[in-house]
Amino acid sequence: MFQKLMVANRGEIACRIIKTARNLGIKTLAIYSDSDKNSAHVLLADEACYVGPSVASKSYLNIKKILEIAVVRNVDAIHPGYGFLSENHAFSKKIESKGIAFIGPGWKTIKTMGNKKNAKQAVLKAGIPTVPGYSLQENIRSESLIIDKTIEYPLLIKAASGGGGKGMRIVLKESEFEGAIQSVKREALSSFGNDEIIIEKYIQGGKHIEVQIAADHFGNIIHMMERDCSAQRRYQKVLEESPATSIPQITKEKMYEAAIAIARTINYTNLGTVEFIVDTSGNENDVPFYFLEMNTRLQVEHPVTEAILGIDLVEMQLEIAAGKKLSPKQSDIKSKGHAIEARVYAENPKKNFMPSTGKISELRLPKNVRLDFGVKQGDQIESHYDPMLGKLIVHDVNRELAQKKMSDCLREFKIKGINTNLEFLYKLNNDPSFLENIMQVDSVELIVEKFRKETALHSHFASAAILFLFLQNKFEKKMWRIWGERGTSLRLSHHDRFFEIKLIAKENGLLLFLENESYEVSDIEISAGVIEFTLRGYNIKYEYERENEIVRVFDNGGIFHFELQEDYEQRDNTEINEGKVIAPITGTVVKILKKNGQLVSTGEPLVIIEAMKMEYELKAPKAGRIKKMKAKPKEIINQNDILVEID
Hints:
alpha+beta, 8-stranded antiparallel beta sheet
């Protein structure tokens, strides 16, 4: 086995790899950028070495510097994790040339399967069906590319060297084509260092199913069952589970055979994942499937496979790379129970999932469950990297109990100082499409729309006000008359909006005033975790959690978060001056779409910025003439900077 392992990555996956290496008695070397010098993976490793500035291209993508560190520090193996250089064949080739083991397949295999165009050609040789499409070659103008008239809209444009949901756009009509091409090329170049793209027919609906395989250097190849990754937003997986209980067993068996056939065709070694799109509109007993891509690395969602099989996949990777034979045989692969993984992101789902930066002022995680996290309390979340904070993995004897455990764990989370997607994960995990196991790859977008439109009801506000009143101030019913007719007031915030609630004591309850409306509240009963009362004649019953100045009300799969404010300013999300375009996050300006003096209409794109490896269009909040375009190409901008002024 290896003596010293460099982990050429950061965050939760670096921590995950380091833990297994230490269990095997392998010393670990972490690398870190300016932003990560005090991060969790650095503190966990045996050694750590500075690799460069915060910008990924100068640190975690800096092949020359990483190799220099590896040689000087005498490492004999490098694990790339996922993302960054994990599927960069040039990186793997240079590692091998230094006599250092690369934890993954050979560089030629990475080159073949890491490029989606080459991968499709290899898969076709194995007789596996693929999604119709073609590649965008150099020296061809993108406007003239739709030459294959058999491929109709909608189209999917994606980075040939991409992965992890980045560098992908759905194009519904021809007018969107050129802009999508350029956007994907920029994102691909930024994330993967290669702007080659491919264009495919976009298959609407269906299930995204992937098969985990492992292959050693002695010709032994096994599959380790499948994962259902259909819960996606913008091709970024959100919830993953194993096994895929909604797919017929006969279809699964055919996918297992296809995955192994692909691996054998390209002489694959180490771990890999073959991804398929399953057309659920077919025969329910045997549905057709198409090859999507092969990831020649460890997947983000690998823990659900580990949970149902009881196998450490990182340990398996290291053993194969060290020249050992596969220890489990195909007959040893048996599933036990059901596992679900949720990806926790620093983002604001109520604001189009805009990444969130800032300091984690408080971090409390669920207990007695697997958590793969790469951040800790006090860490500063910046805009240089992917916004994923970590992953929650639950396992139980069946899917129903695993889903219930996921809900309970999501309610235990406490993350303050930044916005997260925890409330959205709770909503998604409790949505009927997920509960009934009928979720397809485009289902999440419908849930997103419901979530955005979901607003707190006056009964939720009433619950929060009553809970703050009784639990914090410990008022008893007999003390209500102390207020008299003047009553008392509470100031609450909910999703960046501020509200004042007035309560006046009555003989059998309260009179509550909110937004120029009055509500009679009676029959109030509060027990551990449950509040009941009558509001305007309707019986209300909610579960709740309260901690100091925060109350969370749970209703119909939703979480409604209220915070008690001592001092506040009545305001909402509307800018005082609607003619200003404000930077929503720290990032980089990648393109200016308009000039000073130009007329613009409401909603027209003005500036494109990049933050946390994703592009965002900033649009005109009103019609008018551009008075001043303050943004400049390639400029690093800070959150709340004024980028455009419109008359």
